[in-house]
Amino acid sequence: MCNKYANSLNQNLMREYFRVMREHDRLGNAEPLPAIWPKYEAPVVRLTPEGDRELVRMHWGFLTPQVSKKTGKPIKPAAWNNARDDKLRSAPLWKDSFRQRRCLIPASAFCETKGRNPAVDVWFGVVQERNPSPFAFAGIWRQGQPGINGEDGDWLTHTMVTTVANDLVKPVHPLRMPVILDPEDYETWLAGGDDAAFALLKPYPPDRMFVLKGD
């Protein structure tokens, strides 16, 4: 699973790369984000009701209520920041968003953690012509968080879809990696039918990725 990613892209590049008209940029002044964690806000590309692409801010992770096992009282909600591809069409938390609210998650790198004591953060990038190289994760989103009270309950949230790890990621995280989409597949993911979109959920070719750094 992925618990940290980066979006160090400037705003003009995001609009150009993801084909978002300036009037549909809702970010305000967006600063580069070298590290994004669950519950943090980050740019997301989604479709308007009219079918135009727009850039908006969303918190990372669908929220669900939690209670303390000791006291039975509510505690901070869980943030579900990864959605497994094999659960996407059946799990109640994901299936409606997959059918109705798919999005692109702009990124320049993502992180997987290897080992313990000490744990090492390994960052992965996608081979492209620009530096930083823009790419997009397959994402889904929703408005409002059922069962969550207060300001958090009104959040716009997104989560990224994960699939089996490719041969580059597997030595660091042997099971899962985020779904990275090819640019020619962005429109299918955003607006295509369920079957066509689901067919895009596969590991990204390892020869088109590289290890960016390890901390």
TrEMBL record:
Source species of the chain: Paracoccus halophilus
Gene3D superfamilies found in the cross-reference section: SOS response associated peptidase-like
Keyword Membrane in annotation: no
E.C. numbers: 3.4.-.-
GO annotation terms (biological process): protein-DNA covalent cross-linking repair; proteolysis
Gene Ontology MF term list: lyase activity; peptidase activity; single-stranded DNA binding
Broad class of enzyme this protein falls into: hydrolase
Keyword entries, A-Z: Covalent protein-DNA linkage, DNA damage, DNA-binding, Hydrolase, Lyase, Protease
One Pfam family of this chain: SRAP
Record's protein name: Abasic site processing protein
PANTHER family (UniProt xref): ABASIC SITE PROCESSING PROTEIN HMCES (PTHR13604:SF0), DC12-RELATED (PTHR13604)
Protein family (similarity comment): Belongs to the SOS response-associated peptidase family.
